[in-house]
Amino acid sequence: MRRTVKLGFLLAVALILSYVESLIPFSFGIPGIKLGLPNLIVMLLLYDQPKTGSDLAKQKSRAVNEQVRERFFSDGAREALLVNALRIVLSGFLFSNLYTILYALSGAVVSFSAMIIGKKCGRFSMIGVSVLGGVFHNIGQIIVAMLVVETFAVAYYSPFLIVAGVLTGALLGYAGMEILPYLRRMGREGE
Amino acid sequence: MTRADFLLIGICLLAAAVLAVWFVLGGREGRTLRISCDGKLLETVAVDGRGLVANGAGYYLFLFEESGTTWERFETYPEVPEGVSYNLLSVSESGVSVEAADCRDQICVRHRSISSGGESIICLPHRFVAEIAGRAGEETPDGMVR
């Protein structure tokens, strides 16, 4: 139950960040560049797990160990996916339209997959995972734009979008690292 | 930050630099402005190395009606008929830009003007594309999907 409260709280924060982002004119005349503030919440959820698979494995018997290993998506990943999908649909209906929802979902799916794989391989810190998310979000959107308008011309913007993804990703990753301890503490209070 | 982080950032920046050099080198020659909708080529305007050839300059008004897409060139800023979805493209020596459109997101209108090869303005809601291709008759550096 406490977990549900926390997810609801983070969803609300993610919605506010979506709104704040829609207010900031941060485009430089190049379509597709944005800060990706709501991704901060996705990152926090990915890392804020009550017990990670490996922690559980250490504590419990071999049978549980194998069960945990079988699951590709950790608890954090499933919660992050849930909150992100809800955030996109809700903010889409609140601040824009169905069309934007589909466009945002495509970017989110690619970026989320990249972050999950990046985190799974275990070599990246939060900053690395966040950079992966930023870069792949932009790449995903370029690919969708190419498919929709049936031209490769959009690829011209890929260098700008990759650099933007690295910058925003690194900043958000750093912010996530700073915020995570507080979020963990918040979960433990009152226990 | 781990070593993998730095490696990842390095690779991303390197890839961006390589792509940027590729596109800049690909876009130096004389070019054509190609305007298409739904992947269908509507109009081409010849463009020289720096700016745009004067005889192609003007305003191009594209109207998207149920019966099909029609377009017309104007010397001066035209009046837009009401109740029809449209993109108004301005072509001048300083570049190509979308002056007005009735699309929902207005991304094409806010887009800065384009002038070098490979650049494009895209209006996703109307599936409308104005792009500057490489040398006349040649495709953009990486070709077109039809």
- Order of helix and strand elements from N to C terminus of chain A: HHHHHHHH
Number of strands of chain B: 8
Fraction of residues in helix of chain A: over 70%
Structural class of chain A comes to mainly alpha
Distance N to C terminus of chain A: 12 Å
Number of domains of chain B: 1
Shape designation of chain A = globular
Distance between the termini of chain B: 44 Å
Output the CATH class name of chain A.
Mainly Alpha
What share of residues of chain B is helical? 10-25%
Helix-strand pattern of chain B, N to C? HEEEEEEHEE
Q: Tell me the overall shape of chain B.
A: elongated
Largest binding interface between chains: A-B, 36 and 40 residues
**Assembly state (oligomeric):** heterodimer
Radius of gyration of chain B equals 18 Å
* Average pLDDT metric of chain B: 80
Total DSSP helices of chain A:
8
Round the Cα radius of gyration of chain A to an integer and report it: 17 Å
Summarize the main sheet of chain B.
4 strands, antiparallel
Overview of the molecule:
The complex is a heterodimer of chains A (191) and B (146). Helix content of chain A is 77%, strand content 0%. By secondary structure, chain A is mostly helical. Chain A has one domain: Arp2/3 complex 21 kDa subunit ARPC3. Chain A is globular, with a radius of gyration of 17 Å. The two termini of chain A are 12 Å apart. Chain B is an alpha+beta fold and 146 residues long. Chain B has one domain: Sandwich (mini-chromosome maintenance (MCM) complex, domain 2), CATH 2.60.320.10. Chain B has helices at 3-26, 107-110; strands at residues 31-37, 40-47, 58-65, 68-74, 85-92, 95-101, 120-123, 128-133. In chain B, strands 2-1-8-7 form a four-stranded antiparallel sheet, with no helix packed on it. Chain B has a four-stranded antiparallel sheet with strand order 4-3-5-6. In chain B, strand 3 (58-65) and strand 4 (68-74) form a beta hairpin. The chains are: A mainly alpha (191), B alpha+beta (146). The interface between A and B is large, with 36 and 40 residues.
